Amino acid sequence: MSADATASVDTTPRVPRWVATTLAVIFGLFYAYDAWEAVGNVIGISTLASGLDTSISVVGWVVLSLGVVIPIALFLIALGLGRKRDLLAQVLLYLSGLGVSAVVALDIVALFGAGQLLT
What we know:
The protein has five helices and no strands. The radius of gyration is 20 Å and the shape is elongated. It has one domain. The longest helix is centred in the first third of the chain and has 35 residues. The protein has 119 residues and is mostly helical.
């Protein structure tokens, strides 16, 4: 057998770079919106805390910071995992990350609320 016959051939069609980049930018905007909402939560809770003459607890800062960091981290994970995959897999990875980001944001609101984040 020759070396050509034993070499594995990549049969998956490559996604053009401009398509992958466009897809990443479009989904990146959705992830950026999630991160921006989390920044709004930080500003809103800190305004609430100052209006009540109290401060945000350590747990509150951790939870609010995670709300900002998680959408960014999920986007980077989806981007990294989807680099060598086909178009459908990339879309599904981005959508899965957005779903996880939404669940985390709703869990933060449902589990902690404004009262538990303040001291």
